[in-house]
Automatic annotation (TrEMBL), chains A, B, C:
Name this polypeptide is given: Pyruvoyl-dependent arginine decarboxylase AaxB
SUPFAM superfamilies, per database record: Pyruvoyl-dependent histidine and arginine decarboxylases
InterPro entries membership: Pyr-dep_his/arg-deCO2ase, Pyr-dep_his/arg-deCO2ase_sand, Pyruvoyl-dep_arg_deCO2ase
Gene giving rise to this polypeptide: pdaD
Domain of life: Bacteria
Record keywords: Decarboxylase, Lyase, Pyruvate
Catalytically driven reaction(s): L-arginine + H(+) = agmatine + CO2
Enzyme class: lyase
Family under the similarity heading: Belongs to the pyruvoyl-dependent arginine decarboxylase family.
CC cofactor: pyruvate
Pfam families on file: PvlArgDC
Molecular function GO labels: arginine decarboxylase activity
HAMAP family reported in the protein's UniProt record: PvlArgDC
Glycoprotein found in the keyword field: no
């Protein structure tokens, strides 16, 4: 099977760019995750995975990543993205939730906290805490807000 | 290279949730696939892969998965999702097709059957049978219908 | 960790199909990449990766792939997709950009060239050249234009 990740790092960043994809690319660079091959996952924290503050991964590596992103071309619009990692009281697997929208960073963060709480309730498990990363951005021309949980080894 | 999957399991499920992503998460739980890291693939059944009725995968594992999903926030709307695995008469690789829409389970199932037939015709191969999983859901507030083929080891 | 790809192949293709997903599937077949499990990546060329003109990968294999695709059901509409691989003067990692839209092949190609240039500028690196694949298609009923960089081993 594909090796299950053992580490995770929570990041966020916002940026402008000359195109939608460049804005996304620049937001990844701002988040410190721009030179990797992100594989989007849907999105469980493996049991025993350890949080590491900084990514230490060579460029071009394949990195399973749960993320939320929004790109806007509406000048002056406020956009935000957040991720939350719900950690259980029982030491079992965690649940990762992503959100992005036309709102503030605080609203995005509150939303992923609610989503993590609901995910634990749906599983009948006690939620201990939620690790959050969130960002907001005021669009100039083409802007992107991006938040992610990278799962690595 | 990344190891080619040798097993597959076909699942489906529908659910409500307090947000779009929670509805999706709950539909995955209803389908029995909620505690994994789904890697969305586009979507071929490896030659020789064996159907296994139940998933037996530890939480947080990376699982290549072909899936169709629809989320709706329109009360009383009927939504459906289906997957089909087209199996050839020749024992070679199969083709996986996904569909979701605002329709009945029967319509979604018929659609993936048609799509698998067309995929085999495009390859000039004889289709032996189609393995299908399908689900429909009547939305209350925020609902999701989800159908998937998990590829594992 | 997941093994980092060491080869890459740039492809493109367009096709019609009886459904949106069949059109996509047929465009993949036209591009010579139809019988693989594409894992969508976001999208860096690993340092030292070597371009190989033809894919040599068994069916059903998991293949990290950066791609742009557009499906249209508007008769007579022109659609296009392009990918660009920006290669640096320094031999370090490259940057892959994807684009698809309702435009000509030349416009799609020019767009990915601009995007690769911007991605190198954002990184403060000198761009040596851009390897491009692009395709355009005039829709009859349901058409798809697809361009990709497959990363393999």
């Amino acid at each position: 099977m594909l090796e299950t990740p053992r580490k995770f790092t929570v990041v966020s960043g916002s940026a402008e760019g000359p195109s939608r994809l460049n804005a996304f690319d620049n937001a990844l660079l701002a988040a410190g995750i721009g030179n990797l091959n992100l594989l989007k996952v849907s999105s469980i924290l493996p049991p025993g995975a350890v949080e590491v503050p900084q990514l230490d991964i060579p460029p071009g590596a394949l990195v399973p990543t749960a993320y939320g992103a929004i790109v806007s071309e509406v000048p002056n619009e406020r956009i935000a993205a957040a991720v939350g990692v719900g950690i259980g009281a029982d030491g079992d697997y965690g649940v990762i939730m992503e959100f992005s929208g036309r709102c503030s960073r605080e609203e995005a963060e509150a939303e992923v906290r609610r989503m993590c709480a609901a995910a634990f309730e749906a599983r009948g498990r006690a939620l201990d805490r939620v690790i959050v990363a969130a960002t907001e951005h005021r669009v100039r021309e083409v802007g992107c807000a991006f938040a992610a949980v990278a799962l690595w080894y």
